[in-house]
Amino acid sequence: MEISAIIIVQFICSLGLFFLLRNFYTTYFNKKGENQATKEDIAEITKEVENVKKIFNDQNTILNAKLSFQNQHALNLRNAEREALIDFNKKLSAWLQYIYSYKIKIITENNIYSAEGFYDELEKREYEYQLAYGHIQLFISNENILKHSENMVSVIKDLSQKYVSTNGILLFYYKQQLYLRTEKKEYTDFDSDCLRTMHKFFNSTPELKEKIDLQHKQLISFIRGRIKELNARESDETD
To answer: Cβ(237)–Cβ(78) under 8 Å?
Structure first.
């Protein structure tokens, strides 16, 4: 579109140059007579023509430079938005995948460290997502992406809270067992308490996961649509 504008402007300038020179020659030859031009007159005409051509070329160069700058600026913004959208989905997927991949199970000495580090890692993934979300807000005006991501994140937080609370309870049971052992006592209900807590967790999470997966697919569809729109604009401006 901007290249077409350049062509139109160049055509108008060329047309203006044509009429300017035609009027100049008409006036000149009316005064001098068609066969009376001297060498000095021809030199003067040539000088005027060159001056007009120089003005036209200078203005055309300035116009091309401005349009080139505007095109490059728009291209940089589109590239930045494209990268922001890709990074946004990457951070969202990483956060979600970390939650899904964490195994809720009875705590033992073999998995105590991963269980204790779960909450900190979860916070880190959410923080990285929030940064990416803030980044896309600088660019996009697509309300579908913003609104849909907010709704999805609300459900993800509900799910992550179930992971955190269940993991915390299982950690408490494990540490309670260790304490009782130092007191030469047995935590006789350890296994049953853990299994009951895990059973409650496994019954409450499938519906949330199903809802999140559906919303994530829809969000990816919106993101793809926006990227396709950016690519189409770029293609139109280079035609």
So the answer is: no
* pTM attached to this predicted model: 0.69
- Give the percent of the chain with pLDDT over 70: 65
Helix, strand or coil, per DSSP, at residue 34: coil
How many whole angstroms separate alpha carbon 125 and alpha carbon 159? 14
| Side chain identity at residue 166, one-letter code | T
Angstrom distance (rounded) from CA 223 to CA 87 = 11
Q: Phi and psi (nearest 5°) for 22?
A: -65, -45
Three-state SS for 99? helix
The continuous run of DSSP H or E covering 169 comes out as helix 143-182
Model pLDDT for residues 158-179, shown as the tens digit of each residue: 999 999 999 999 999 999 999 9
Our CA angle for 208, 106, 211, nearest 5°, is 5
What's CA 237's distance to the chain center, in Å? 20
